[in-house]
Amino acid sequence: MDYVVRVVRAEEWARARELRLEALRDPVAHLAFVETYEQARTRPDEFWQQRTARAAEGEHSCQFIAEGPEGQWAGTVSVLVERPGGEPGFGEAAEVDQTHLVGVYVRPGHRGRGVVDALFRAAIDWSWSLADPPVERVRLHVHEDNARAAASYRRIGFVPSGQTLPMRDDPNALELEFEIRR
């Protein structure tokens, strides 16, 4: 694999925005993302600048990108730190110190090349490196109909936790929680 996985830099906010907007136009975006393309494209530059700067800091969140040999971005994943007593990110408030993988996207021309595995390896390693206090588990959510994503997550080592959430826009559909425990 000729990709380098690294943390996004604050000054790369425009590229981060571009990749996010592309992800939200993917045919399965309605299964994978809470936000829509229409919502995201109207956000001001300041939003994207602040979001990318926070992800570059790596204190409460971190965004990884996979960069190809020509400098092209092949994919991304973001990690949110969730602590007991903190604000609930998605679903219930955290019962243990954990991280939550979100915003997973690999551009179509780069799929099947190990990009998602490398992104997840970096995100999980970063999660395990948090020491104050240490993270007990890494979690993510996947729509019950997103079999391709669920298969990737299982291959990487995630297992269903047994927790589910109704989808915000369709309470008849479920988000399944997957996890890896330390």
From TrEMBL:
* Annotated Gene3D superfamilies: 3.40.630.30
Q: Which GO terms describe its molecular function?
A: acyltransferase activity
What Pfam families does the database record attribute to this sequence? Acetyltransf_1
Where do the N-acetyltransferase domain residues begin and end?
3-181
PROSITE patterns named among the record's database cross-references: GNAT (PS51186)
* Its EC number(s): 2.3.1.-
For whether the record's keyword set contains RNA-binding, the answer is: no
Q: Which UniProt keywords apply?
A: Acyltransferase, Transferase
Superkingdom of origin organism: Bacteria
Protein name stated in the entry: GNAT family N-acetyltransferase
Native organism is: Streptomyces argenteolus
Q: What is the lineage of its organism?
A: Bacteria, Bacillati, Actinomycetota, Actinomycetes, Kitasatosporales
